[in-house]
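User: Show me a protein chain along with its predicted structure.
Assistant: Here is one chain, sequence first, then structure tokens.
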Amino acid sequence: IVMQPKVLQYDGCSIALLPWINQENYAESLRFIETCNAPILGSHLELDGFDVMKGVPAHGGMDPKLFSRFEQVWSGHYHTKSQKGNIHYLGTQFEMTWADADDPKYFHVFDTETRELTQIRNPHRIYHRFVYDDSRTDPDTYDVSAAGKKFVKVVVVGKKDFFGFDRFIDRLQKQDPFEIKIAENFEEFTG
């Protein structure tokens, strides 16, 4: 756990590590960013202009230009992986919330000699979303095999065949998911 900014050596490669920047350490953090002698910085940054989650841009964060002197900047905090110039948001290594569903997750390996950052996709997922519409897809033909040992959400767009929907849910339950949530629109019943 890094509580103070510092530069560490990894196989002869200097990597600056910067803890979460807050009001108490803001001035010290800026001095470290400006003066540390390392080509690479690892931190937990809130930078403007990057997606916090897939399709959700961050506003009001720090200016990424503050980090332009580094060869590479690696950051956590934002859940989705992205890169602009020298700044790499590595994203979370696994799905943590429903907002992470359908957003590829990666582990990263850094080669201290070549300075290559290699991403390795995590094949494991814990969330799976089905969009159910029996006007477009026969309820008995949905592939439910991906539902096993996952949190499942069924978003109902169209449901005319109530018995077909029940059969679909029964098939889902047989896959042994952790949980099934059904999201339906009940507008017709309001008022």
